[in-house]
Write a sequence for this structure.
């Protein structure tokens, strides 16, 4: 098995900072902005993006704007895969009704996780709009879903594996492609 | 996990996974829209050969909150009262496409039989079989204890060192048997108190020391949890104790005994309660009583059990 680093720690930082700027630009400011990370690494990325926004906009409360959305119970492949552990879902205290919700995940692949996330969001309220930010878009979509903010477009073959490592949860801080 | 027949079959990891998932299900039960799409289009049959209100409704709600289709089948007023055998009933349900069968039966081993006889291919959940087991009750009891002891930090925690006193009709109680298995797996310390006539012939085989005097047990063992068992009047086919008043005086949880408990101790009862027999109204309605929490937690725990059985590639 060969593996190759496609994003180093500094590349990830730059991508996160750029996504943070793009989000604020698209939202025309930081008001009514909620970042919902999809466990596990989406949550970490959401926190990093929120921290990057807060660096430029000190009145943006990065703690209060980040939530997590567990989508396990909304998957469409539950019957054909091993049972997954369900983790906590938590939305910011202000809720998501009328807010701009940015879903954050590490890798965008088939799009099925995002479809599940769109269903899961409904249970918490009706956002003004939902956007999608991902660190890596590797293609091979199976649903009509596209990311609004992308760290890096990474053409891959289906057989390859993308491994995102973030030092909050892993030993390293990089994105690796394994074949 | 394909079936849930006995609490004995659950490993520590499996038990904790079910309890942790139940925490998330409890969060769903607090939402305005109490529904998940997880089991949409799948069929759960409640097959009840014995009277039951709370267990059947609890399983029905649990399945419905996961969006499954639920069919309730009770022996009364059905083909069973016309003399149909368990085998024929099971095969009929199989032919109708039941993917999970929640079964309660008066015969010990009925659930195991359904799971192994090959009459039906779906998942079997034991909702009480005779004097044998009632595993979801044990799970919801453990969940309730964990919640009271660890509060919001209960995720991933076992019951290591928690002192549990089980009081009453151990002989006939499937709740006691399931709890003994599960609590031991979770690391709790268990003692039993019962009249000698309401203990099995060899109480040591249950793996817990026994007392015969409730007051001695309370002052000696200093339990964190007192679990009262229902006196199963429908199974009292011999003279197990002289009179109800004597039972209430010796083994009932009276207001006086409430005063013997340590500050944090809780009183549990699986319901339905015989007020004035095994539990007094003072105890049942006190803040220490978890009776209603147990009912509410039952739904979350059963949602979790159905999720763990019916999701995942069981084969």
């Amino acid at each position: 098995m060969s593996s190759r680093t496609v994003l180093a720690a500094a590349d990830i930082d730059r991508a996160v900072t750029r996504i943070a700027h793009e989000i604020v630009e698209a939202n025309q400011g930081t008001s009514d902005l909620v970042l919902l990370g999809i466990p596990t690494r989406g949550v970490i990325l959401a926190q990093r993006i929120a921290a990057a926004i807060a660096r430029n906009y000190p009145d943006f409360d990065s703690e209060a704007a980040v939530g997590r959305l567990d989508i396990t119970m909304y998957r469409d492949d539950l019957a054909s895969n091993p049972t997954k552990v369900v983790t906590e879902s938590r939305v910011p205290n202000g809720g998501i009704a009328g807010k701009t919700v940015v879903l954050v995940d590490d890798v965008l692949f088939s799009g099925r996780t995002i479809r599940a996330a769109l269903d899961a969001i409904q249970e918490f309220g009706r956002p003004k709009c939902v956007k999608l930010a991902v660190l890596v878009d590797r293609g091979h979509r199976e649903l009509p879903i596209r990311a609004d903010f992308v760290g890096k477009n990474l053409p891959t073959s289906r057989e390859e594996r993308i491994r995102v490592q973030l030092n909050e949860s892993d030993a390293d801080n990089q994105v690796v492609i394994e074949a | 996990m394909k079936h849930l027949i006995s609490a004995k079959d659950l490993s520590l990891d499996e038990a904790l996974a079910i309890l942790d998932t139940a925490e998330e299900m409890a969060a769903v039960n607090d939402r305005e829209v109490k529904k998940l799409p997880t089991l949409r289009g799948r069929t759960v049959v409640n097959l009840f050969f014995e009277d039951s209100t709370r267990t059947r409704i609890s399983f029905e709600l649990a399945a419905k909150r996961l969006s499954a289709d639920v069919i309730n089948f009770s022996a009364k007023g059905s083909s069973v009262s016309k003399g149909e055998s368990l085998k024929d009933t099971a095969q009929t349900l199989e032919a109708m496409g039941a993917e999970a069968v929640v079964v309660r039966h008066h015969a010990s081993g009925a659930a195991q039989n359904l799971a192994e006889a090959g009459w039906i291919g779906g998942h079997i959940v034991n909702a009480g079989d005779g004097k044998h087991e009632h595993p979801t009750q044990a799970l919801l009891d453990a969940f309730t204890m964990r919640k009271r002891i660890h509060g919001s930090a209960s995720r991933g925690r076992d019951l290591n060192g928690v002192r549990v006193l089980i009081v009453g009709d151990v002989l006939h109680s499937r709740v006691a048997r399931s709890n003994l298995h599960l609590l031991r797996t979770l690391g709790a310390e268990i003692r039993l108190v019962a009249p000698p006539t309401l203990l099995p012939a060899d109480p040591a085989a249950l793996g817990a020391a026994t007392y015969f005097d409730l007051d001695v047990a309370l002052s000696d063992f200093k339990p964190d949890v007192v679990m009262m068992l229902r006196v199963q009047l429908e199974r009292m086919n011999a003279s197990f104790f002289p009179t109800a008043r004597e039972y209430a005086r010796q083994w009932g949880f009276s207001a006086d005994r409430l005063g013997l408990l340590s500050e944090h101790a809780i009183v549990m009862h699986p319901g339905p309660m015989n007020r004035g027999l095994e539990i007094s109204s003072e105890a049942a309605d006190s803040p220490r009583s978890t009776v209603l929490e147990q009912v509410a937690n039952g739904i979350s725990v059963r949602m979790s059990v159905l999720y763990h059985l019916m999701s995942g590639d069981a084969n």
Summary: The first strand of chain B starts at residue 43 and ends at 48. Chain B touches chain A at residues 1, 17, 20-21, 23-24, 27, 31, 33, 35-38, 66, 155, 307-308, 310-313 (CB under 8 Å). The beta strands of chain B are 43-48, 69-74, 100-105, 123-129, 163-167, 189-193, 209-211, 225-228, 266-268. Residues 7-133+295-310 of chain B form a domain with the Rossmann fold fold (CATH 3.40.50.1370).
